[in-house]
Amino acid sequence: xxxxxxxxxxxxxxxxxxxxSVSNKILLSISDSEYSSIRPHLxxxxxxxxxxxxxTGERLQFAYFPNRSLIxxxxxxxxxxxxxxxxxxxxGFTGTSAAVGLSRGPxxxxxxxxxDGFRIKVGALQNTLQSTxxxxxxxxxxxxxxxxxxxxxxxxxxxxxxxxxxxxxxxxTQDRVDSEALPITHDFLATMLGTDRPSVSLAAGALxxxxxxxxxxxxxxxxxxxxxxxxxCECYGVIRQYDGELGLK
Length: 249
What we know:
- By secondary structure, the protein is α+β, with helices and mostly antiparallel strands.
- The protein has 2 domains: 25-156, Jelly Rolls (Sandwich); 161-232, Winged helix-like DNA-binding domain superfamily/Winged helix DNA-binding domain (Arc Repressor Mutant, subunit A), CATH 1.10.10.10.
- The chain is built from 10 helices and 10 strands.
- Strand 4 (70-76) and strand 5 (82-88) form a beta hairpin.
């Protein structure tokens, strides 16, 4: 059976109880009746850069639905080294473990690009899902697709060179924040890509020399997206295809 595209309410047509506008695509995709069930529990929050929303292995307190922010899902090793396993923008939510009945999450969730969104207590979300089957389906689908993204990212980090990975990462980030300029430092890129700062600087310098990006202190601007896509590895296209399976417009 062909899967129907979900109907998405326009951004700004839904608000939380405090009157804050909703831009998260999942919250805009569910029916009015199901949104009415979750709306009382949505708390508007600012999401400043580098804020840790959840630590590895800790009990989940909240699930977050970003509006205009980017959140990294990060694997943390015992020696403190980290590598990004996935990203979440306004197409998704953090706390996928809670949506399938688990109490803990395996990844650190950290805000990568400043923005805002909504959070909901895990208990309230799980109670709401008992009477909102379409929301439950959508969150389960998102959890499955995010696990595919994590697997693809793991393969990318192991098999592809830093320039390809950087191009893939910049494209994925722009897809989720809808901006040419990305407020990201080389130090933070190195942390997310699981490498060192000099390697990131060399890769960024090569992309800038070709005219694909422009780097200023603390920000990267994508100048030629088509050429940047050509420089990325196959993983960008695969992950983008996974995101398309969500059925969100």
